[in-house]
């Protein structure tokens, strides 16, 4: 596989489309209001409980908010097992602004560039630390879509802002207000550093849990057919 090296990028990228999927909704209201204040025509893509929370903040259905399933044309699977793992989502996250073939792919598929991802993950470490938690509790709280979105957006920090920590929300709102709805490269890069540290810590917690859990626990947790 040959990798095309990027030569030209933009310092400031206006946040026009943001994908929001958060388990911990701390600080979501001021973030949404701050984004709207800086980018009145912003589009939020969201799923599940996050969609419902943003819809409530907006006072009901809004052209500023769209279900991921409506955007992709693929309904969520039972129990929300698969929501954001879709070609249009990842094309939007990984597209490079100055790459003409990427722009052609966007036009071909009807996808849009996604300029920011606001995501935090299932609380794996908290769940497995709870009294009585078993292997199935652990397995059910291994987040798949969240780390994929975070890693894709962090890889493409040359254009996309990955936001994983609610403590960063006020600073991001301030940056957007100061730069007419855009985030500068320095901010995107700082966010990418934190994003990869976040997913590494998350995977480490999962690996450590599995390493200290005996294989016999599998048979103890499930009926084996």
Description:
The protein is of the alpha/beta class. It has a single domain (12-221), classed as Methylglyoxal synthase-like domain (Rossmann fold), CATH 3.40.50. Helix content is 49%, strand content 12%. The chain contains 11 helices and 7 strands. Strands 4-3-2-5-6 form a 5-stranded parallel beta sheet, sandwiched between helices. Strands 1-7 form a two-stranded antiparallel sheet. Strand 2, helix 1 (28-38) and strand 3 form a beta-alpha-beta unit. The longest helix has 28 residues, at 185-212. The protein is globular. The mean pLDDT is 92.
- Please give the alpha-carbon distance between the first and last residues: 42 Å
Task: Give the percentage of residues in beta strands.
Answer: 5-15%
Question: What class would the helix/strand composition place it in?
Answer: alpha/beta
CATH topology value:
Rossmann fold
Rg over C-alpha atoms, rounded to the nearest angstrom: 19 Å
Output the helix-strand order: EEHEHEHHHEHHHEHEHH
CATH class: Alpha Beta
**Judging from the principal axes of the Cα atoms, what is the shape?**
globular
Strand order of the largest sheet: 4-3-2-5-6
Count of individual beta strands = 7
Give the tags:
single chain; 225 residues; alpha/beta; Rossmann fold; five-stranded parallel β-sheet; two-stranded antiparallel ribbon; 12% strand
């Amino acid at each position: 596989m040959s990798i095309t090296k990027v030569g030209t990028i933009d310092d400031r990228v206006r946040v026009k489309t943001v994908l929001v999927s958060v388990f911990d909704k701390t600080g979501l209201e001021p973030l949404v209001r701050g984004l709207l204040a800086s980018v009145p025509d912003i589009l939020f893509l969201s799923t599940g409980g996050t969609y419902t929370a943003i819809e409530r903040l907006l006072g009901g259905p809004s052209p500023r908010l769209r279900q991921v399933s409506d955007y992709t044309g693929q309904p969520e699977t039972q129990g929300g097992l698969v929501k954001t793992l879709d070609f249009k989502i990842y094309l939007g996250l990984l597209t490079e602004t100055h790459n003409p073939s990427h722009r052609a792919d966007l036009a071909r598929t009807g996808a849009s560039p996604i300029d920011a991802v606001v995501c935090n993950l299932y609380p794996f470490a908290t769940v497995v630390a709870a009294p009585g938690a078993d292997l199935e509790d652990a397995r059910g709280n291994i987040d798949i879509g969240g780390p994929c979105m975070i890693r894709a957006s962090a890889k493409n920090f040359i254009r996309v802002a990955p936001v994983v920590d609610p403590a960063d929300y006020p600073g991001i709102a301030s940056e957007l207000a100061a730069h007419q709805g855009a985030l500068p490269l320095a901010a995107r890069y700082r966010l990418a550093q934190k994003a990869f540290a976040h997913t590494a810590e998350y995977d480490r917690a999962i690996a450590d849990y599995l390493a200290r859990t005996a294989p016999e626990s599998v048979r103890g947790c499930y009926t084996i057919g």
